[in-house]
């Protein structure tokens, strides 16, 4: 039987061969970079960034312990809540990350304290004091003086219009947002906040949380109450010293 004639090799132009080689090299290089930097090209992963099983267990226990302690704090008699010396409070979030139970995070978000070193003005109502009791290990608060109210609003204040941050550099913006309440300028805002006036709620809804600087001193990293030598809880008038260090 006659042998079949060998088929001639398909001719591939040199240009196409070069393109294929270049593409293969490019894919190999991209894959190498992905392996080094992570699947989507972020920071290079370090060994310490990879959580071990015991870390997950420890974080779970910390969150459950946080929930238990929060329930214990809320069981205190309402009479145990400190009677405020002022109608106005300034609250700063100073702790809280992986060791926080989702319920605690929910209460912090309700106070608009979504980040560490964010601060907000609040009226010292029974409802607010109960919320502060629930998140006590993560916040510190006290009674701001008029000077610090003014400094915070002038230096760190911004408004929110249509979910956009708006700098408070034009009284027309303030009049547009709050004019129907008789608030026409920055001084009106400061006066209403400092005195916890009748339109305090509307102004606070207009103002965003204050983003403060991490203080070089004044915080020890302890979740104990301020009165017991820690950082958290009611500082009364001493909150003004901390505001000065963070503003």
Describe this structure in words.
The chain is α+β, with helices and mostly antiparallel strands and 247 residues long. Helices cover 43% and strands 12% of the residues. It is built from nine helices and seven strands. It has helices spanning 14-37, 53-74, 102-110, 126-134, 146-156, 171-178, 186-194, 200-206, 239-246, and strands at residues 88-93, 118-123, 139-142, 158-161, 164-167, 210-211, 233-236. It is extended. The N and C termini lie far apart (97 Å). The model has no long low-confidence stretch (mean pLDDT 80).
Task: Give short descriptive properties of this protein.
247 residues; alpha+beta; 5-stranded mixed sheet; two-stranded antiparallel sheet; extended; Ribosomal_uL30_N_euk; ribosomal protein; 60S ribosomal protein L7; Ribosomal_uL30_ferredoxin-like
Topology (SSEs and partners):
Elements: H1 14-37, H2 53-74, E1 88-93, H3 102-110, E2 118-123, H4 126-134, E3 139-142, H5 146-156, E4 158-161, E5 164-167, H6 171-178, H7 186-194, H8 200-206, E6 210-211, E7 233-236, H9 239-246
Parallel strand pairs: 3-7
Antiparallel strand pairs: 1-2, 1-3, 2-6, 4-5
Helix pairs in contact: 5-7
């Amino acid at each position: 039987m006659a042998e079949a004639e060998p088929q001639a090799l398909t001719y591939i132009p040199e240009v196409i061969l070069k393109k294929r080689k270049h593409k293969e090299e490019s894919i190999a290089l991209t894959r190498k970079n992905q392996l080094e930097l992570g699947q989507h090209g972020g920071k290079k992963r370090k060994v310490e960034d990879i959580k071990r099983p015991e870390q997950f267990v420890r974080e779970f226990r910390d969150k459950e312990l946080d929930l238990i302690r929060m329930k214990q704090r809320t069981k205190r008699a309402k009479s145990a809540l400190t009677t405020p010396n002022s109608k106005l409070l300034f609250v700063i979030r100073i702790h809280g990350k992986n060791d926080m139970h989702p319920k605690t995070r929910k209460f912090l978000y309700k106070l608009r304290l979504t980040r560490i070193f964010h601060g907000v003005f609040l009226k010292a109502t029974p409802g607010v004091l109960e919320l502060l009791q629930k998140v006590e290990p993560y916040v510190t608060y006290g009674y701001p003086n008029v000077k610090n109210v003014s400094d915070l609003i002038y230096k760190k204040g911004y408004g929110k219009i249509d979910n956009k941050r708006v700098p408070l550099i034009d009284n027309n913006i303030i009049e547009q947002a709050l004019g129907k309440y008789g608030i026409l300028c920055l001084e009106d805002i400061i006066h209403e906040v400092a005195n916890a006036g009748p339109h305090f709620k509307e102004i606070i809804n207009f103002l965003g949380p204050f983003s403060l600087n991490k203080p070089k001193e004044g915080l020890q990293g302890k979740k104990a109450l301020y009165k017991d030598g820690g950082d958290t809880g009611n500082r009364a008038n001493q909150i003004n010293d901390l505001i000065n260090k963070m503003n």
